[in-house]
Structure formats: structure tokens, C-alpha cells
Amino acid sequence: MSIADNLVAFTLAATLLTITPGLDTALILRTATVEGRRQALRAALGINVGCLLWGAAVAFGLGALIAVSELAFNILKYCGAAYLCWLGLNMLLRPRRSVATPQADTGRQGNGFIKGLFGNLLNPKIGVFYVSFLPQFIPQGEPLIAWTFGLVSIHVVLGLAWSLALISATRPLAEVLKRPAVVTWMDRSTGVIFMLFAARLALSKR
Which domain does 180 fall in, by range? Predict the structure, then answer.
């Protein structure tokens, strides 16, 4: 394929992967609904900075190590599962009754950027995915590092666009989503989802 064909094919594949519901979607929707747009944007930025860091790791060889080393994969996998389980338990056992504001409840609200970043970095399947997926779209003879960062940048742009769409979709339902019963339900249901993702990650294989 030509360079243009590679870019178009990757963009289409990355778009489908981006809009497939997963942990990132759950985190952004929950954060936008319960903690507000600003924290949701921070979470989206954290997720995509994580993607850039994984791209750098793949470009410089760490991703390949995770892909072939059972020990490295398992260490990162279990750390990620523990982190997701911790987040999920907090949401499940200590659900909110109201939407946080920038002036209130900042202690429990936490930092959306950190949640998004570590949720992404502690998922070794992102690294394995990049190692196995990106090389298919890098033309033979082209510089590996430049193309890796270029393709990851496309994925990041798509991820940010999708995140903004998800955050915007919560605005028409803002009044309903601010009701105490709905806020509590969102926290608990997202907590369950996070714990399921933690179990899935802990049981996953390369």
C-alpha cells in the first residue's frame, strides 16, 4: 500500500477501536456526569497522554519487552487490575449523592487527569496492542520512530474527538443526571464496571 493508503486504513481501524465501549468510555461518561466537564476533559487528556507514553515506549523498545516478557506483562497487569479495583470499590462503597462543584468536595473528586493517565498506563494490553497493531501500517523502509509517533498521534486526536463528543452528549441530560439518585446509581454502576474490567485484566493473557 502507498503511504496515503496506510494512513487511511489506520485511521479507519483506529476510529472503530476508539468508539468501541471500554474502560476509557466508562471513565469519561461517569466523570462528565458526576464531576463535571472540566474533570472529564482532564480525564480525557490523561488517557491520551498515556497513549503517547505507550507510543514512546513502543517506539523505543519497552513495548516489545512487555509483549515478549511474561513477568513484565504480569507485573503491570496486576498493578493495573489493583488500581481499577481500588477505583471501583471507592465508587461502589462510597457513592456520591450530589454533583461536585469546583469549590466543593474536591477531596473526594480527585484529579481526573491522574485517573485517566494511570488507568491507561497500568493496562499492559495497550502496549501489546500498539506493538502488534502499529507495525501493520508502517510502510517498509520508513523511519520506525517517526511513524510510530505519527500513528499514535492520529489515535490520540481521534480519542480526544470521541471524548469531547461523549462529554457534550451529557449536557442535554444534565438536569436529570444531577439528581441524587442518578448520581449514586452512576457511581455504583461505574464502580461495578471498573471491578469487572479489573477482573478481566487480571485474568487476561498476552
Answer: 3-203
DSSP code, position 122: T
198 vs 192: CA distance, rounded Å: 10
Q: In this structure, what DSSP letter does residue 179 have?
A: S
Residue 191 to residues 100, 137, 178, Cα–Cα distance (Å): 17, 36, 18
How many domains does the structure of the chain reveal?
Answer: 1
pLDDT digits (tens, 9 = 90+) for 58-74: 888 766 676 677 887 78
> pLDDT digit string (tens) for 128-166?
778 767 777 777 778 878 888 999 999 999 999 999 998
How far apart CA 59 and CA 80 sit, in angstroms, is 22
* pTM of this structure: 0.69
User: CA quadruple 41, 44, 50, 54: dihedral positive or negative?
Assistant: negative
**Bridge partners, residue 104, by sequence:** 101
- Are 178 and 99 within 8 A, CB to CB? yes
Q: Is the dihedral of CA 87, 88, 89, 91 positive or negative?
A: positive
